[in-house]
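If it is no trouble, can you show me the amino acids of a protein and the tokens describing how it folds?
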Amino acid sequence: MATLSETAARVGQSLPSLVKDVSQRRIDVYSGVRPRSIHSDEAFAREKGFRTCLAQGMMSTAYASQLMVKLLGPGFALGGTLSMAFIKPVYAGDRLTVRGVVKDRQPENGATRVVVEVWVENQHGEKTAVGHASGLVA
């Protein structure tokens, strides 16, 4: 798996996006099927005012982590940070795109910490989660 080199992680650089289809099966596998859950019981989700079942917010965080591992490899897995805020529901059947832009580079213990603004959009281009991630490159 190719990762970014120190010179490739330029401030302002847009990172290659990651696309994920959020099926009900994927939601069920993520947290299990339970009655009276907005994640796995469609009738209950509708009763609570949603159009269908909702994906767990942490799924978006996992996708942002996947993007960072893909781009920074061990530098994210061993020294990375990630903070996300969930701003719009993600529904079963949505297609999500995880995006990132390099915002800063900081020297750290002989390496460089790359700080990335990350966000998740649904198929309508609406942001569903926003945050910041960082990791180290040699």
Observations:
- The chain has a mean pLDDT of 93.
- The chain is about 25% helix and 35% strand.
- The beta strands are 18-21, 81-86, 95-108, 111-121, 127-137.
- The radius of gyration is 17 Å.
